[in-house]
Amino acid sequence: MTLNPRSDLRQLRDERSDWLLSALTGVLILLIFVFAPLQAIGISAFHLFAIGLLLAIICGMVIISSSRTALVLMSIAIAANIAVFFLRLYYPVPFHLHILAGAWLIIACTLVIVVTQAVFRRGRVTYHRIIGAILLYLLIAVAFAASFCRADKSGCDQGNSI
Fold it and tell me: Where are the domains of the chain?
């Protein structure tokens, strides 16, 4: 009995790719509607939970797609999230919100490409693919939210707003 990680990953991709679309949708809904508001209130522990869920998203993305470029982009985004988490704890950085917005824009755009390929590939239209299409809409919302992120007067803009 030999272990071949590539063939095992390929087999897992064939068996569970559609199911992972539904799981990723659930994780993203949890991030958007539970963890992001609690993090915005100022509970920093939820930033750590969000990083954990982001790691789960990356694992799901690796199973769905074999793209190394997507893996590199998602790794950069999680590194930025971790850096902002520690910078918030030890050193108040005035532009931490912009770093997070850029990281989430990378995450959303990368996942849109990966999920689009998974949802619209040949084969049967399943319930999980329909949920994957809903995931696309949620990712577009995340991309727009990250694109229009700005700091308010009390935040890191220091009163330089118009």
Answer: 25-147
Closest-CA residue to 107 (of 134, 85, 74, 83): 74
What percent of the chain clears pLDDT 70, i.e. is strictly above it?
82
Residues with Cβ within 8 Å of residue 23, at least 6 apart in sequence:
60
Q: How far is CA 128 from CA 25, 42, 115, 118, 125, in A?
A: 10, 35, 11, 10, 8
Q: Is the pLDDT of residue 144 over 50?
A: yes
Q: Model pTM greater than 0.90?
A: no
Closest alpha carbon to 135 in 46, 38, 17, 49? 17
Residue with tokens 């790719």: 17
Chain segment 22-64, per-residue pLDDT in tens = 999 999 999 999 988 898 887 878 888 888 888 898 888 888 8
Structure tokens given for 133: 């299409």
Amino acid sitting at position 135: L
Q: Give the span between the Cα atoms of 115 and 109, in whole angstroms.
A: 10
Count CB atoms within 10 A of the CB of residue 151.
17
> What is the C-alpha to C-alpha distance for residues 71 and 5, in angstroms, rounded to an integer?
17
